[in-house]
Design goal:
Layout lengths: L1 H13 L15 H11 L2 H19 L1 H25 L5 H24 L8 H31 L1
Helix pairs in contact: 1-2, 1-3, 2-3, 2-6, 3-4, 4-5, 5-6
Length: 156
Amino acid sequence: MLSLIIVLSALENMLPPLPALPPGVHLGLSNIVTMYALFTTGKKTAVLLNVLKSVFVFITRGAIAGALSLSGGMLSILIIIALKAALADKISFAALSVAGAVFHNAGQLAAITVILDNFAAVYYLPVLIVSGVVMGSVTGTVLNVVMPRLGMIWRK
């Protein structure tokens, strides 16, 4: 799973920015694998994968990118874990993915605000919320399609 996360993260980072997306907004394809890990192997594995992905980002893209990856990834997985625990079977993969994406962006925004020691980045919050909803919907929909099929493979 870590290999797949690294490949998806690197691939997404190599893609040219999509003209329709605001600066800094990515699809978050590797989050599909992290959520899959959460639902199939548990919380510890999902958290570990987030940390290891952030280490990879730190090594390949530098300290700030690593800090943003860690802050966004950890806040995202923690909110998904909390919502999953609180709402159990009453919440969809798409809703969990949207919450995770929005909180991932919020975690990164909080980290960059601390790193820059400047609250000006907070003005970008509406863009990050909207992009989190859109990208979270996309990754949640992909997870919704993939999960049953991978579940069949997982059980074999």
